[in-house]
Predict the 3D structure of the following.
Amino acid sequence: MIVVVGLSYRTAPVEVRERLAAGADALPVVLARLAARTELAEVLFLSTCNRVEVFGLVHPATSARGDDRVEAALRAIREELARQAGAGSGDDLAAYLYDKRGDQAIEHVFRVAASLDSMVLGEPQILGQVKDAYEAAVAAGALKGTLSRCVSRAFTVAKRVRTETAIGTGTVSISSVAVDLAGRIFGGLSDHAVLLLGAGEMAEAAARSLGEGASALRICNRSFDRAAALARDLHAAAVPWDGLEAELVQADVVVASTASNAYVVTRDMVRRAMKQRKGRTLFFVDIAVPRNVEPSVHTIDNVYVFNVDDLEQEVARGMKARQSEVGAAEKIVAEELARFLAWTRGLEVQPTVVAMRAKARAVLFSELERSLAGRLKHLADGDRAALEQMLESAVGKLLHTPTTRLKERAADGEDARELAAAVRFLFDLQELGGPPRSEEDPLESESDERLPN
Amino acid sequence: MTLELANLLFGATAAVYFAASVLFVADLLGRAGTLARWAPRLVAIGVPLHAAHIAVWSVVLHVCPVEGIHFALSVAAMLACLTYAVARLRYRVDVVGAFVAPQALAFLLASRFVGPVDYEPRLRSALLPFHVISNLIGIALFTLAFAAAVAYLLQERRLKHKQFAGFEHLPPVDALDRAEHRFLVAGFPLLTIGILTGTIWSREIEAGGTAAIARAALSYASWALIGGVLLLRAAAGWRGRRAAFGTILGFGLTLLVLVIYLVRSLLTAPGGPA
C-alpha cells in the first residue's frame, strides 16, 4: 500500500515548513535514512517551498498484519520527519502533519503533480520539483516498483491536465501580469530600457521579472546609495533622483514603487518627456500604494499606466479562469486513478498467476522428460526442441483464459482473492514471494509513460 | 481548356482565401486553436493560385491585367497578399491577414462578376501601365497599412480601457505601429508616381468630366494626407492613434478613387447603363 505523510502551506506556516525542507545537499542523506527503514519498501521525499511530503510503499514482507504494517510505516515516516526537523519526536509536528493511505495517497500524488494542490493553482514548477524528487529517489535506490510506477504515472496525469485543460493558462501573479502587458505593448523587451523608481523589495522583485531581457535597467531612488547597492545586485545602473525627468525620455518601461505619499511622476512631466520622445510608447507599472504616477498620465497618447489594482484584477481573472478548469482536471485525475488502481489490483493476483503457470509447466515438462528418456529417446534434437516448443505453447493457451479472468476480476474492483484462493486450492499451489512485474501491464504499453523532459 | 483552367484556379483561389478568412476571424475570437497558424499560410498559398488565375483569365478575355478596374482590383488584392506573405516573415503582422484575406476574396469575386471593360483607343497611352502598376502596388501596401492601423486601434483601445480579455492574439501595439509606418513609407512613393503619371495622362487625353475631376481631387487629397501622416510622424512624433486614424482616412480616400473608377466602368461597360 502507498502512504504519504507530510505538511503543506495549508497545514503549516513557513517557519515549520522550512525546518523540514531538505535542499539538494541534504536530500541523499534524508533519502538514505528513509530507505533504511524496514517498514518501507520504497520511498520518495518531496521538498518544495510550499510542501514537504514523504511518499512510501509499505513493506509487504514483514510478519505484522496488514493494518499494523501500514501504521508502522506511517510511524516510521513521522519519526524521520521529526528527526529532519530536529525535534525529539513527531509529537510537536503532529498538529501540522497529515497522512493519506491507499487510494487517497495515490490520488494525492496525482493531484500534487498536476498542480491541483498548489498554492497558485496550475503553476508549472511543481511538476519539475516532483520530477527532481523522483530522480533523486531513483538515484538513491529508494524507488523500484509500485511507488515508482505511481509517481511516473503522476507525470502522465500532470501532462494530460496541462494539455487537455486550460489550468496552466492566464497570468496569476502581479509580476507576470506586468510582463504580459509589456509583451502586449512592446512584444519583447530586448530593445527597450526599464527604469526602476524606488529600491525597495517590491521594486527588486519587479525588476527581476521585467528587467530580465531588457536592453538596459536603470534604478532611480531618493537615496542614491541604496539605488547603487541594488544596481550592483541586479547588474544595473543607478541614476540620481533629480535626473528622473531626463530618464523618462530614455526609458520605455517604468516600474514605480517608491514610498512617496505624493505623485512622483506627474502628467506635466510625462507630456514634456513625450515631446522629447517624439511620441515613442511609454509604459508605467505603478505598484506603489499610495500611487506614484498621476492617474491622468494614462490619457496621454502612447502612454499606458497600470496600477496595482489593475494588475490584481487581471490576477483575479486568471485565477478564476484556472479555477473553472478544476472540474475537468479532477476528472482526468479520477480516470487515471481508476486505471492505476486496476493495475495495482491486477498485481494482487499476479503471484497466483505465476504459480499456476509454473506448476503447469513443471508438470508437463516433467512428463516430457520422462517420455524423452523412454519411448521417445530415438527423437532427434530438432524434434525434441519442437516438442518443448509445443508444450510451452500449450501452457500459454491453456492458461490464457483463467489468467485473463483473474486479472479482469481484479481490475474490475471485485474481490479476486476468493477466486485466487480457489485456483491455489485446485492446483495445489504454494504462495510465492512478492508480485513480479506484470507481463501484460496495461500501463506498460503506453508511450507516454516516460518522464517528461 | 483555358476557360476550364481559369475556372478551376478561380475556385481554388476563392476557397483558399475563404478558408484563411474564416480561420483569421476564428483566431480573433480565440476559437481557432492550433489551426490559426494555417491562416497566414493559406494566404501565401492563395498568392500563386491567384496570380495564375489572373494570367489565365486575361488570356481568356484577351485583356491586359492592368487595364480595367475589375482586373486591377484583383491584381491589387493579390499584390497585397503577396506583400503580406513576405512581410509576416519579418514583422509580427499575422493579424493583418484578417483584413487582407477577406478583401482579397471580395476583390477576386468582384473581378469575376464585373464585366470586362473595353478601353477606348483614345485612353490608351504608354503611361497607362506605369500609372496602373504603381497605383496597384501602392494600394496593396496601403491595404496592409490600413489593416495594421485597425489592429493597432483595437489593441490600443483594449489597453487604454484596461481590458485584458478578448482579442488576445493581437500583436503588440508597438509592432503594429511600426508595421503601419513601414507599409506607408513603402507605398507613398508609388502613390506619388501614380498621381504624377495620372496627371500627365489625363492631360494627354484631355479628361475633364466630373468623375475625372473628383477622382483627381481625391487622389491629391489622399496623397497629401498620407504625406502629412509621414511628415508629422517624423517631425512632431505623431505616432500611434493619430497616425492610425490618418492612415485609415488616407486609405479610405484611395479606396474612394477606386470606387469612382469602378462605378464609372460599370456605367460605361457594354450592356451597362450609358
Remarks:
- Chain B has eight helices and no strands.
- Chain B has a mean pLDDT of 81.
